[in-house]
Amino acid sequence: MRYESALRAYPFKRLEEIERADIVVGIPCYNNDRTIQHVLQMVSHGLYHHYRDRRAVIFIADGGSTDDTREVVKDFQLKPWQEKLITIYRGPAGKGSAFRAIFEGVKRLQARACAVVDSDLRSITSDWVHYLLAPVMDEGFEYVSPIYARHKYDGTITNNIVYNLTRTLYGKRIRQPIGGEFAFSGELADQFLARDVWETDVARYGIDIWMTTSALTRGRKICQARLGVKIHDAKDPAASLGPMFRQVIGTLFTLMEQNEHIWKDITGSEPVPTFGPETISEPEPVNVDIERLVTEFRQGHQHFGVLWQSIFSPECGAEITSWAQLPTEKFAIATETWAKILYELAAAHHRWESNRSALIETMVPLYLARVASFINRTRHMTSAEAEAVVEEQAEIFETHKPYLLELWQRPPAAPAPPCT
Known about the structure:
The protein has 420 residues and is an alpha/beta fold. It has 2 domains: 9-275, Alpha-Beta Complex (Spore Coat Polysaccharide Biosynthesis Protein SpsA, Chain A); 290-409, no CATH class. The chain contains 16 helices and 8 strands. It has an 8-stranded mixed sheet with strand order 3-2-1-4-6-5-7-8, sandwiched between helices. The termini are far apart.
């Protein structure tokens, strides 16, 4: 079923009653009754302390929670001169559909700026509202991406795939392209809303990478906001990968095809303006079961091994096979090899006209193997020291970008070159 709007009748009526707003803060949620009250409190306090002279609306887009999330929101009392709107959005279940509802609210209220924050945050402070909105309200930026102090094993998809590829492709060092907390101008929200993507993975977990890439490829004025330590309901990648990996990577690869005329000509990368105070504290630990990571890779090798040999170059295929023989404590993958594996997968996705979701499915055990390798390398490091490793690997991805270009331009029937 195709939905022309993510809004139901009630939010339409409430938006008409509110009429106008300067600021919208969106909170997508689903079964977050344990955490959403704290998020609401911090957002309300932040708007009161920093923007009390502006008309503000807090827009909660719920995915049909079966716990008490909506009841908690309804009972929460905001600071004076703030409005609250809660709705169950329409459309495919997912974060992107929640964002679509928020974009519609921003457009109808003709808001100047919008910030979005996740509903499972435990470390959010009232200052986050200011850190996110100030670059848009005061400095003329159109898109604000977050920087957090995260535990070294939190955000493993970002650390091992998304940051490396986004930085290499588009030449900007956006550290958290799928971070969860963003801000953008009302005009950019209108542009997001107008795109015909709401029946794709963008309507689910693909929304963050899609927004960031859209801002990068359309010349928007982009910056980053330091938000301090991020503590949320982090998950062990071996235990709860779920659909997020497939939707994020599928969107990332699809965007590579759509924007190849842009990224093919970009070399190197450059930092973007960054605001907010530096944070030095060590984040809350995230426990990861490395034995399970390695076991699931070995099972994936048994299942996909023959297919992998047809996808990857002989040298990369040999490397992957060798990993299956490594004991857990010595599990290690060279970053150069990992970069070339991802580039070969992206090129295969580009060449395959069907079964692309199956191709991405074969990536999951390889990703788990890379996380296990990262854990072994950074086991005795602080999160700040592990961050230096992430930056080092991003530079290696940039160095090997010519390999991606070669693969991308090769005719489908040509043999793959050595992965050396």
